[in-house]
Amino acid sequence: MQIEPGADVSEQVFDQTDFSRSDLSDCTFTGCSFIGTQFRAADLARSSFERCVFNDSGSENPADFSQANLRECIFAHCNLTVVDFQRLKAYDIRFEHCQMMGVDMSKSDFRLPVGDADLVAATFSHCNLSYANLSNNYLRESTFNHCRMLETTLDYVDLSDADLQNNELHNINGTGMALRGADLRGSTFNNISPAEIDLDGVQVSYNQLVMLLEPLGLDIHPDLTERG
Q1: What integer pLDDT is reported at residue 216 of this predicted model?
Q2: Assuming Cys at both sites, which of 24, 106, 183, 191 could form a disulfide with 203, CB separation 3.0 to 4.6 Å?
Q3: Tell me: the pLDDT tens digits for 174-223?
Q4: How far apart are CA 161 and CA 106, in angstroms?
């Protein structure tokens, strides 16, 4: 099926379709199925995907977006389980209410050069990122809200000044991770350790202090009240 830039595509099934290096910019896909579909190095800038499936329970060949241009793309209410997103160009990408277990988004570029500086933008909202690989990414000032991130790989990810509120961050892999100035309020976690990660300026609530101190091996007790 030939798709032109800016096309509006609804309720179509793409099985083993090869869109590698195609220009699919500014397209809108609604209710489509992309099983085993190749988007390698395709231009999907400013496109949107609503209620689309990129893998199903019987498929061992999910969609492949590796090296694609997904700048300013939106994925909403999509099944992206174990999809390959390696080495994306992904400035201002948005994922909302998506199933993203096991996705590989390592070594991607979320930056937009502006003069001598780089803008960074990426938003993950109400997504399941358990077992996902986000390693080796610069995600400073990005947003992760209400996401499930169980055993997610965040090795060598810069999340400085990121909005990380109201997430589940349990058993994460965070070797070399940076969290300076990040906002962790409302999130739960069990292995973010001040001994291993720079937490300078991190925002937490009082009830999260126990979670931060437990990895240090401290035996924390409630305050004793004086008896009359």
Answers
A1: 56
A2: 183
A3: 899 999 999 999 999 888 776 677 788 988 887 777 676 666 555 666 66
A4: 20
Segment 74-87 shows an average pLDDT of 96
Query: Position 38: which residue type?
Result: Q
Chain-centre distance of CA 29, in angstroms?
21
Calpha distance 65→53 (Å, rounded)? 14
pLDDT at 218: 57
Residues 88, 89, 95: CA angle, nearest 5 degrees: 75
CB distance 139 to 130 below 8 Å: no
Residue ranges of alpha helices (H) inside the chain are: 209-213
Residues 64, 127: Cα–Cα separation, whole Å:
19
- The answer on pLDDT for 151 being more than 80 is yes
- As a whole number of angstroms, the distance between CA 81 and CA 74 comes to 16
